[in-house]
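Researcher: Let's continue the batch. This sequence belongs to Solute-binding protein family 3/N-terminal domain-containing protein, and it's 275 residues. Same format as the previous ones, please.
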Amino acid sequence: MLNKKILFALSFLSTSITANTAENIQINTLKNSTLTVCTTGDYPPLTSYNIDTRQYEGFAPVVVKNFAKHMNLKLEFQKTTWQQLSSDLMAKKCDMAIGGITYTEGRNDLFYLTEPIIKSQKAVLFTKENAHLFKRFSDIDKRENVIIENKGGTNEIYVNKIIKNADIKIIESNIAVFDCFEKYQEKPYAMITDSVEVEYRSNSSDSVFSNEGLNMELNHNPERYKVYMANQTTKGKAIILAMNDFIRTHRKEVDHWFQESLSGTYHEDEAVCPF
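Model: Same format as before. Here are the structure tokens for Solute-binding protein family 3/N-terminal domain-containing protein:
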């Protein structure tokens, strides 16, 4: 009986070593190659395109730059939009997509996804001028209010699910949403987005945004997390295995980069409120 247990343990250990070896072989195939990354560049602090330096900044670009250096990869960025993110990746315009990408079952069906990068839930963003009006979700979902969201992504899907009374306006650019808030600070506008974006937008003392929506209870709002995506190909699998390994072994640095990104200054592209 004891011999059987020993043999079983050895068999299990052998299988584990073989699996790890196979993963290492896949990861090693990436070295000294080019990694092309799609990102929207309109979602600080997670991804932002600096119009002055023509460089990508923010948390996700910092992570992927350090990953590329670690893997000895040549890194190239490909600009995309929230509407085109999945189709650009599937069309192989890039090897991996990064930024403010939330895990969904639909994305998991289509792509290889990394392990959780950071946690995030949906929260409500509104101006300080309107903080006295919006104390709970029922104050938000009223006919006289307007919910403004960018087209594509999980924000649009989420508001269409939970908003029953307020008017919903969907506009093309994520950055243009914030121009609407700047332009109409006293109008009863709100945006439902990721808590990390609410935290960032309300962080500075001269911000027009309130952080009070971070603690507002919302319907159907489980804890979510951000991921990076790659195609379901041999190379895509190798990229995700390598990125997962990098995140695990550099978790302290990753958490530090995220905290740094929250207090960063980003030179965003110009986008005008369409109304």
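Researcher: Any comment?
Model: The mean pLDDT is 90.
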